[in-house]
Amino acid sequence: MTDVLKSEIEQLRERLGEAEELLDAIRDGRVDALVVHGPEGDRVYTLKGADQTYRTMIETMQEGAVMLSPDGLILYANRRFAEMLDASIENVIGGSMDDLVAVEDKDRFAGLYTRAFGGEGIKAEISLRSRDDMVIPVLVSMQRYRDEDLVTVCMVVTDLTALKKTEEQLKRYAETLHRKNAELHQRAEQLGRLSSELTMAEHRERRRIAKILHDHLQQLLVSAMFKLETLEGVIDGNSWQRVRNAVQVMEAALEISRTLTIELSPHVLYEGGLVPALEWLVRWMKEKHGLSVTLAEEKSVAPEREDIKILLFDSVRELLLNVVKHAEVASARIDITRLNGNCSITVSDPGKGFDPTEGKTGRPESGFGLFSIRERLLTLGGRCEINSAPGKGTSVNLIAPMRAIAPADAEMETEETEAGAMAAGHADTAALREPATITRVMLVDDHSVMRQGLSVLLSGYPDIEVVGEAQDGEDAVQLARKVNPDVILMDISMPRMNGIEATRIIHSELPNIRIIGLSMFDAADQAAAILQAGATKYLKKSGNKRELVNAIQTAVNAGG
Fold this sequence. Notes:
The protein is built from 17 helices and 17 strands. 50% of the residues lie in helices and 21% in strands. The chain has four domains: 53-159, 2-Layer Sandwich (Beta-Lactamase); 180-265 and 414-432; 272-402, Heat Shock Protein 90; 439-558, Response regulator (Rossmann fold). It has helices at 2-28, 52-60, 79-84, 89-92, 106-117, 161-229, 237-264, 267-271, 274-289, 306-327, 370-379, 415-427, 448-459, 473-483, 499-509, 524-533, 545-558; strands spanning 33-38, 41-46, 64-68, 74-77, 122-129, 135-147, 150-159, 292-297, 331-339, 342-349, 383-388, 394-401, 439-444, 464-470, 487-491, 514-519, 537-540. The protein is α/β, with parallel strands linked by helices and 560 residues long. The longest helix is centred in the middle third of the chain and has 69 residues, at 161-229. A five-stranded antiparallel sheet has the order 4-3-7-6-5. A five-stranded mixed sheet has the order 8-9-10-12-11, with helices on one face.
């Protein structure tokens, strides 16, 4: 019995040696044909010796290379593929590809393989299972290959393990960034509310002081003057002259008090609004400081928010006082316009100017200062743009939102409501508002970098959400039907179907979608064409990014 076993073991060793020699011959290209015995008969696969250069390239490439028979048998595999599976090349060649595919992807791979064998080029992500049952994410690219009687499927396998780890890290980083952005947004929102409260607190204090001056001090001065006037004819001439001198001093004090009352809290600002208040300011600057100011305004342009209205008025007054102190000119200009739904006020003068890059954005003797103006506007959703140079004058543009988004308690009509508003404002400081609505935006551009840039830009606005991206007009039409966004940012020049044609189709099928045309070129014919196709606006890609955001918000508002 022992001799029989030894004989069988020896035969098995001989067969194993023959198999190893055959595998080496196949890899070296020394075998022209391979006969596989099966239940349906023998199959002959021709294995012509490959050129040594190509064999070297395939054996040394970083991707796995596999050749499969019609029934999924692995006829050839390079060493890189075996390394992915943590297996020897001998244990891979001759096996079934189905045995290496993860259970959850077996049916899907079978379908993909059938399509590839039918002549369709296939590229897909699947999971393989290594010898120790580890999951290996890979990208497979399959293409049918026919050479005389031999029909095989050539497959290139790319290990995605490192890529998936990187994607997971990027996902975690993105989640962290999103969380940090949310925290920054909360901080900015809180800072904006605190800035609004500061503006209103200053306003309340000014009105309180003005009320004291008007209702008490001025009344007492007038009363005292009346009483002193009654002494005329009662006392002798020398004494009366002394009384008259005292009355004149009191008259001067009364005039100073009246002026201070107006400067602290001009009633026209609260009774007539921002534009009438600026009209009064023009007259006041001429009378008080001899500065001639030209005012060009759109009377319909006025912010609804009380804090914005007060901040703009105080800022314009401060800028005009800076002209008086530093510009060395006798004239200035105020222009009030509507800019993308915002109130834009420009104060300019032809004076000596200054260099904004030196960091001296405010004057030491200036109580409010350019720096304070800029920072407060930023926290309240606006901005301040300074354009000046030595000897070339100064232009300061104040841009602030017009819509009333501040809480109702920011407005004050009486001293009682002022105190209630201040208390409510402090109580609500930590209660940050969420956006009332989310504008769903779809990006269409054949350049992925542009889409990424727009996506990153818009991600910084909590009321805007990017819901889809398309790389040409045809994809844009299909995606618009699927996601039905509120706004589409549509590139004009794209392959397959351009933005003008895509706009025409989308506008005819989904007229509720607002489309904003984008282009690198400032071409009037392109602008006219996409607007005629149904777009609501046309912008240059290189234009102001805030203008783009304003265009999105304006388009949604216009859409009702």
